[in-house]
Design goal:
single chain; elongated; 41% helix; 0% strand; 51 residues; 1 helix
Length: 51
């Protein structure tokens, strides 16, 4: 039974890694300059700058 768990774990690990490696990337690297003037890491503008 232990061998079954090991095989299932290895198959799941290979599937996850394979999916990650074959997925498309965002196409470019993100630099801190992309968020200049933003308050949040997601790039949202500061509420105080909307005035």
């Amino acid at each position: 039974m232990r061998k079954v768990y090991i095989v299932v774990t290895l198959v799941a690990f290979v599937a996850i890694v394979g999916n990650h490696l074959t997925s498309p990337s965002s196409g470019r690297a993100v630099s801190p300059e992309d968020f200049a003037g933003a308050c949040a890491p997601c790039g949202a503008p500061c509420p105080s700058k909307n005035n």
